[in-house]
Write a structure and sequence with these properties.
Elements (H helix, E strand, L loop, with lengths): L3 E7 L2 E7 L4 H4 L1 E5 L7 E6 L5 E5 L4 E4 L7 E4 L3 E7 L5 E9 L2 E9 L7 E2 L9 E6 L5 E5 L2 E5 L7 E4 L5 E6 L5 E5 L2 E5 L7 E4 L5 E6 L6 E5 L4 E4 L7 E2 L9 E6 L5 E5 L4 E4 L7
Antiparallel strand pairs: 1-2, 2-3, 4-5, 5-6, 6-7, 8-9, 9-10, 10-11, 12-13, 13-14, 14-15, 16-17, 17-18, 18-19, 20-21, 21-22, 22-23, 24-25, 25-26
Length: 280
């Protein structure tokens, strides 16, 4: 039986979840994979070649080409926040490092899979990038502490696009090309590749992560301070679906191909729902 591997950031280690085609309760298994430093995983991504990229709190960033069995250190960045990839194979790494006695934001780009890095100077200076999003038209978006930035040249240069003044934590693209942004003032949606944005709910909430069920378009978002909300109508209405979850901030949320939802926490493990978040 063919399996799918989904990686989630949780607690102080990297956890690998193997999910089969049947129900989670019957087929899911867990394998603990410690990254070389043994410290907390803060950023996690997989490129189109299946290579795993992991960033730690204070021990740099690592890459694995064998499903996490072995790791190669690729950066000494103090705190890794996010990774991004372009179709041509470029890798982006954003995070924090010390300059003198001050912690500053940096974004780096690698043209060789992470072997060497150059600082991105074209518009993302001093920005904290929390996530990257590749668009169908080849454009590239970055969610930052000062709104959304965009690039049309595979990330060589960046310009502030929209949502200025908002802290944007996450970006998600649906099958129709609409983009959803999780911000410190709720959820915003763009129908024109990020040129314009409209508030679509949870305006009083600070949104962390966004996940989508690709089979039906249902959206799931996490709220800083605790809670999961679901929208079944493309963000028009939102329902809290946190029954059975601890009241703590999430460290990630994901939906697998069977519609199972996974909620990762810091300190209390991973929770999953097989009914779209109605129970956990």
């Amino acid at each position: 039986m063919r399996s799918r591997r989904i990686l989630l950031r949780v607690e102080l280690s990297l956890v690998l979840l193997t999910i089969g085609a049947s129900a989670v309760s019957q087929t899911s298994s867990w394998e603990h994979l410690s990254v070389p430093s043994g410290s907390g995983v803060n950023a996690l991504a997989i490129n189109s070649d299946g290579q795993i990229f992991v960033g730690n709190y204070n021990h740099g960033a690592y890459r694995s080409t064998d499903n996490g069995i072995t790791w190669v250190k690729i950066s000494d960045l103090y705190i890794s926040q996010s990774f991004g990839f372009t179709p041509s194979g470029n890798v982006f790494l954003s995070g924090n490092d010390y300059s003198g006695n001050k912690l500053k934001n940096y974004t780096y780009r690698s043209n060789d899979g992470g072997t060497t890095w150059n600082q991105v100077a074209g518009g993302l200076q001093d920005r904290e990038v929390r996530s990257f999003l590749l668009l169908p038209n080849g454009g590239f978006l970055a969610a930052t502490d000062k709104g959304v930035y965009s690039s049309v040249d595979s990330g060589s240069t960046w310009v502030q696009s929209r949502l200025e003044g908002f802290y944007v934590y996450s970006l998600q693209l649906n099958a129709g090309g609409q983009i959803f942004a999780g911000t410190d003032s709720g959820i915003y949606r763009s129908v024109d590749a990020g040129e314009n944005w409209n508030q679509v709910g949870l305006a009083e909430k600070s949104i962390g992560w966004i996940a989508m069920n690709r089979s039906n378009g249902h959206l799931f978002v996490t709220v800083w301070g605790g809670g999961v909300y679901r929208s079944t109508d493309n963000g028009v209405n939102w329902l809290m679906v946190s029954a059975g979850l601890p009241t703590i901030s999430a460290r990630g949320i994901a939906v697998d191909k069977n519609g199972n939802v996974f909620f990762g926490t810091y300190g209390t493990g991973i929770y999953y729902s097989t009914d779209g978040g109605d129970s956990w």
